[in-house]
Amino acid sequence: MDTVDALISAQGSLDILTLEEAQLLQKSSNSELYHLFRQCCLAVLNCGNDEDDISRLLARNEPFDVEIVCQPRGALLQLYNAPSSAFVNDEMILGIKESLFAVLRDIVYIHNHLLEPSNKNLKSSEITNLIFEILRHAQALIPRRHPKITVCWGGHSINPVEYKYTKKVGYELGLRGHDICTGCGPGAMKGPMKGAHIAHAKQRCQDFRYIGISEPGIIAAESPNPMVNELIIMPDIEKRLEAFVRLGHAFVVFPGGVGTAEEILYLLGILLHPRNTHIKMPLIFTGPKESADYFAQIDNFIAETLGNQAQQLYDIIIDDASKVASQAYKATQEVAIQRQDMDDAFHFNWQLHIDEDFQQPFVPTHANMANLCLSKNQSPDKMAANLRKAMSGIVAGNVKQFGIQQVRQHGPYRLTADADLIDKLEKLLHSFIEQQRMKLPSDKTYEPCYLVQGH
Amino acid sequence: MDTVDALISAQGSLDILTLEEAQLLQKSSNSELYHLFRQCCLAVLNCGNDEDDISRLLARNEPFDVEIVCQPRGALLQLYNAPSSAFVNDEMILGIKESLFAVLRDIVYIHNHLLEPSNKNLKSSEITNLIFEILRHAQALIPRRHPKITVCWGGHSINPVEYKYTKKVGYELGLRGHDICTGCGPGAMKGPMKGAHIAHAKQRCQDFRYIGISEPGIIAAESPNPMVNELIIMPDIEKRLEAFVRLGHAFVVFPGGVGTAEEILYLLGILLHPRNTHIKMPLIFTGPKESADYFAQIDNFIAETLGNQAQQLYDIIIDDASKVASQAYKATQEVAIQRQDMDDAFHFNWQLHIDEDFQQPFVPTHANMANLCLSKNQSPDKMAANLRKAMSGIVAGNVKQFGIQQVRQHGPYRLTADADLIDKLEKLLHSFIEQQRMKLPSDKTYEPCYLVQGH
Amino acid sequence: MDTVDALISAQGSLDILTLEEAQLLQKSSNSELYHLFRQCCLAVLNCGNDEDDISRLLARNEPFDVEIVCQPRGALLQLYNAPSSAFVNDEMILGIKESLFAVLRDIVYIHNHLLEPSNKNLKSSEITNLIFEILRHAQALIPRRHPKITVCWGGHSINPVEYKYTKKVGYELGLRGHDICTGCGPGAMKGPMKGAHIAHAKQRCQDFRYIGISEPGIIAAESPNPMVNELIIMPDIEKRLEAFVRLGHAFVVFPGGVGTAEEILYLLGILLHPRNTHIKMPLIFTGPKESADYFAQIDNFIAETLGNQAQQLYDIIIDDASKVASQAYKATQEVAIQRQDMDDAFHFNWQLHIDEDFQQPFVPTHANMANLCLSKNQSPDKMAANLRKAMSGIVAGNVKQFGIQQVRQHGPYRLTADADLIDKLEKLLHSFIEQQRMKLPSDKTYEPCYLVQGH
Amino acid sequence: MDTVDALISAQGSLDILTLEEAQLLQKSSNSELYHLFRQCCLAVLNCGNDEDDISRLLARNEPFDVEIVCQPRGALLQLYNAPSSAFVNDEMILGIKESLFAVLRDIVYIHNHLLEPSNKNLKSSEITNLIFEILRHAQALIPRRHPKITVCWGGHSINPVEYKYTKKVGYELGLRGHDICTGCGPGAMKGPMKGAHIAHAKQRCQDFRYIGISEPGIIAAESPNPMVNELIIMPDIEKRLEAFVRLGHAFVVFPGGVGTAEEILYLLGILLHPRNTHIKMPLIFTGPKESADYFAQIDNFIAETLGNQAQQLYDIIIDDASKVASQAYKATQEVAIQRQDMDDAFHFNWQLHIDEDFQQPFVPTHANMANLCLSKNQSPDKMAANLRKAMSGIVAGNVKQFGIQQVRQHGPYRLTADADLIDKLEKLLHSFIEQQRMKLPSDKTYEPCYLVQGH
């Protein structure tokens, strides 16, 4: 692989670390934090080289190294063996550079403010406060900006027809002035931004936001596209999901795999909570006409697991990008009115109640996975919470380093479910495999990291 | 067709016409000027609906009408039966609106300042002054901006592989900070802007220029893409071509048909003039690997008609977008140095000598076409001038209203050429037909509007 | 005097003259135009050195010279023996540089477009169109900007108490967001801008406009303060006055001399015209408490010459800057509503009718002055028109080169008035002399350039 | 006094407090913090009403109250009985509003981050880190901005001649592009900003910085001028002084009283430290010609107490504003070079060593004042440190609430000095009294809050 060494000075005001803060990330001072930082940097630098096989990525980039050069005038980053694709004319592409320093900013902040002992066992409202503070520190909270953040969810591994459709939806959203927020990887996380950007040009809109929200565990597998002009690293997947729903004003879901299922279950679980029934959160499932079956299946799974009430919470629109966008547009106007009526902020959805069960980090050990209650004897929102965790664990087993290691050591995760549920779950997951949504297509055949079994 | 009526008030400062100027464009006061204005408006409003069959376009939009509503506070445009595709949420797409008023600006200016009797028979230097004044009035001359305008030429009717490649080249140019200037229609005129725009986002570049230069005769067939953020209407094709070469710092040619051949011959003809041999004007022919033969043929045609010296004036780069861009980048650095050394402006290439033969409008009547000297008994630059006119006439016969009428009345144009040349010319033109470069593919078979014959 | 030589390149886009235009201003090509240009440059460069004795100024700056250096890349100005006060750290103060190029812009434009033979004998509406075109070319017409231009008139020669008060009024206007427009010389033309600028800082207003409108005949005696960020040179005093009333939304008059009297008579004369009686033009006379008598006298003179109706057109507010500003603020809100109701522009008062008698240049020869009809046997607006001319002539005799020469050759101007009027006029003019409002105080005693006599 | 009630929503992004943070400042939750906040608000709102008699100010504003209204969409401030001078057209002057929220920002930040137990006993480098963090949080550290912050020190109580001169120096600094940083009260803290602002307008400079650094103890007596566009509240006088010297690139001292003496002694004490001798910190004492004696006396006092070496650290320039500015300009160019050579930041002077003795808060109790070692038996930098504390105590006794209370309870502070020093100190202080520099002139005679006595 073509690589270069480079000494990078920061953009904007991000470089004004104290000397202490810069020390933090030295290889020698804190190898764990350093390791995390190196890995995030690598992901950012590899953007465009779509790849979700983390071990390959890491192996290929083994000689890569990053070092913080402490200087009173601000931290410099010394890169060794960085992928040359991040550079043009010997200059780092500006969007990549900004993302690099966003990573630096968030990792230092999270370390300084959140990982203190007093922050170890947080309660629900404290977690929400943390999320607010991280977003505020990342300057992602813009008071009084009209609600127009559309969160786009969907798979990183989608086919060309689906990808083209995500661009079209992004385009139509862009024509209507919407900002785009995604998980910032490839596929359905990239397409809407590209489409929106062409539309924003036509509308002469220059203050567009392309917000990418990631987390250390997934960033390597979902390297942030440099079109993202606001990259935010949340501490874990649960806080990442909460950031999405606190920031977003409308939600559009494209076809995807277990990650997308996790996102759907997360949001439905929250919206099903009795304290949230009055809150407007427009949610649209959409895809090209080839995806009609896909969404029928998802819809069916939701009906059978969470019930009819859950089905009322979303619309399915097939092959009509302009309708998706105009519905999202109209809905966000209503969100604006509701926020004003409730004296809630535009920039952070304080009113939304999120149960601690959706907030506390779920660590996908084999024990935790095995203990998930996948039974119909629970309220729909509890069911959603547990299914969400199951999906989260499978994502980890597929593409996250921790999960992959667990599975390598102990074999596939074993989920225990009601007889009734087993079948539905297996069918859904199996369809993801068949449609190559679990991982990006490669020469290796996908090996499931899970088993679903009865009690 | 879906249409709407709308009353449009202007963007920017373009709306401050005097009452007199606004009167000019009333249907009643000057039917010719009004007609021209209506047609240009229509073209702008139809952007995106790629179509080069002017009669169809006009027929379909027959009920369309535009009226200038004079008000002291500025002119308003009242549109009747305008294509609804130009609107989103009942608002005109901003880029289209800007283009509409750019048309208004240029038509009024050209009328006021250039069509006076004293401007009827202009000499060479006066023509260049006119071009300067139109560009200055359109605020297209930006002093001291570093040379980085890349003019991209190529067909409006190209295949998907070629189109994708033009986007890739645009992307690589954008990464290097280049502005894009094209004829502002579809195909090779749109692709580079789209590609560049994605790259500009990644480089956080917000002052990019996407310059579209058109002329009344062609605009209907090459409706300006609203990504164009500077639309300029020149009075005729010769002034349009001169505007390209006075503004541009590097020239990239993609595959195309007779229009592209006209552009190539125009530029080569000028560069072959003894007074221009020292001037740096980087010129690159490029396309995907499937275009290799195409450019071999063009190269061959040039060699045989203009000679080896002409071949020295360009590079052919096949299937290497990044090389095209980095060569263009390096070359514009040298252009910058040369301009400074010669005390020439960055914003207007005053030094370039253009023979009057390339400047005086060529009207494609049958007589003028028949009289063209297509013989080897002339200097290469004269040969280029005459071949350029021949190509220009064929473009008119294909897609311009005047040419189409002439051909309908008098049959195909008859070009008379040296025996030697006939064959080469026919082969070239024939290949354009075969590759569907003459017109956008449609259900009608292309009927040649020309005949090449011996003396 | 301390002087420097300097080669100045232009700011903004003003430097893109054609080679032809640059030639225009060469000493050799048109000595009259060159002379005018040199004199305006000198005035701009001398800003701050308050002085209204033109011959002294010219004598002192005799060695000063300016030359346009023609280069394709734009015109440069070569200055010889320029006052060093215009430079800091060897760089010209930016505001002065902008003013220099504004002078260049307007002189070239006026020459190119207005001094053609066809523009020699203009009718009323044509004159208004010209004014519109000059202002548009100077980019002084900003569509849709909320009405807030306050024109401040008053003497260039005022005492420190009055000067301080003009700053206070400017400050209060600035707090309310008003733009300031003056004749751009010292005294009452400078104070309001300084005051407003401090207030604009406190209000964090950064798009303030400090518009200075001058004319070639007076600019030498009223050198533009570099706080003026939009300097406009109109062709003569009548067009300058019309520019004020077409641009302004509210009018504040401070104490002054004959120039101020001219302005008051001009505006009252127009407002008295039957076609203008419905138009809102807020007009306030104001000064510190020491000026109470002064305005009583003016008020009295108006009553006796133009009648009670004229007195209804203004308010006199003594020593209450905040009241002046809040009244101006409220009045401009009403102007905004009226403009909208009448479909008139915010940026140009098209509705205002101005009689040709107020528009045609009045040349202060002795014959013209002697022929002025200063008799009560005329309508108030005619009376205002003639008194305005008389004042205009006296201004010329005091500080304009043409007038001074006339008076030097032929002795004082002789005005012929009704017995009744003689006394009033003399008293008024005499009070201006006593209060040192005719010229800036100097070691020379003021010698009247006029005589008022009976029929 | 004229007062109004008003509900104020925030400017910029300052309003996005967490609900917790907003709670902090409720009257009920923390009366001490609330009290501090109320007092700072009052100071900000009273800007312009120059007054340093805190008890009067407080008495007059007794009915004033401020309440934070917690709303999810951001904190609002409800003001009761606020001085109406802060409003125009029922809207708060924007600069005052910004200052209000700057106060809010800093008080919350200081509370949250600095007043934790772990921050109670900070060591030298920790204090510097704190200062860096407060300034960073206030966005006052702007990396890579060219060094041009001129710190202007001098009295709040100066005479009109001196005040006019501070404006002139500010004007000349502004012409050279300098930013101004002061203690943000009246007198010498306001004049330079006003002057600079006029010059910045002439130089078309719009990104000027007028930085005001205050602290809770003094802010009531030195209400921040709303021209200050960056208001920063440091926790105490020592941190405020350190902020000045870490941020500033050049230092200009105008005539003043004990506060100014404190500032001079602070800076000289630091510069005399052996570790700082190589650091460039341009320091100029200046005033109108009437101040010549004043500075001779200061110079003499320095010579006699700190020695000749200290005299080498500053220049005295009398009555030459332009020389002051051009010397400051040249010196900051050298500072820029030195910072680059030493790899130090432009935005924070990390290299400067500050002894803990200058950093630890000095609390002006009678015991602490009495214990100060004012003897010649110490190194010049120690002597400076102790004299600085003495001056600081007297400032407190004059205008700070804490000091005034101490003196009211225990009588004047008693300073014990070497026989030799007594005389010099008394003479200096006495001259401050005579020249009315201790407090703003009022109807009360100044009563010294100190006694100087021998051992």
With strands numbered from the N-terminus, the spatial order across the biggest sheet of chain A is: 9-8-7-6-10-11-12
CATH fold topology of the largest domain in chain A = Rossmann fold
> What is Rg of chain A?
21 Å
Structural shape of chain A: globular
Which CATH class of the largest domain in chain A? Answer: Alpha Beta
* Structure annotation, total helices of chain A: 18
The chain-level structural class of chain A is alpha/beta
The percentage of residues in β strands of chain A lies in 5-15%
Averaged pLDDT of chain A: 90
Largest interface summary: A-D, 29 and 29 residues
State the CATH architecture of the largest domain in chain A.
3-Layer(aba) Sandwich
Domain unit count of chain A: 3
Low-confidence region ranges of chain A: none
User: How would a textbook summarize the main sheet of chain A?
Assistant: 7 strands, parallel
